[in-house]
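dumping this here before i forget
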Amino acid sequence: MSERDLFANFDRMRREMDELFGDVFERTGLARRHSRRWPPVDVSYASDPPRAIVTAELGGVRIEDIALQIEGRKLFLAGRRGAVPPAGEVYQQIEIERGSFRRLIELGADVDADRISARYENGMLHVELPIVGRPTRRRSVPVRTGGAG
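structure:
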């Protein structure tokens, strides 16, 4: 059995256990918050030009509520989505993550902090981090809206 098959089976088993126990918790009124890391983030690498590409799903987050900071191989993503649902309302189901978040994305290469670009479009944050071989300093990264480039 390949390593990929082994992990696929673990993932399937985890989902089945989540479904089984999630249903029990919901029936007893002990529904738990999602244990997934939020917001979901993809990290990929391109070779021409060499760069790391970080994509974060941030639907419902205003651009002014997003903060990015880079320090060496660490990209910090912070922000806030909407307000917590008002107290006193009765919900049948709550799945939308709200409130403040902070994610640390560990990169697999050193990046040029002065050439990082970020854009936010249709609820997706795209950050391109040019790869270099020298250490970099810490700096804030501005996020602009829409359009490519």
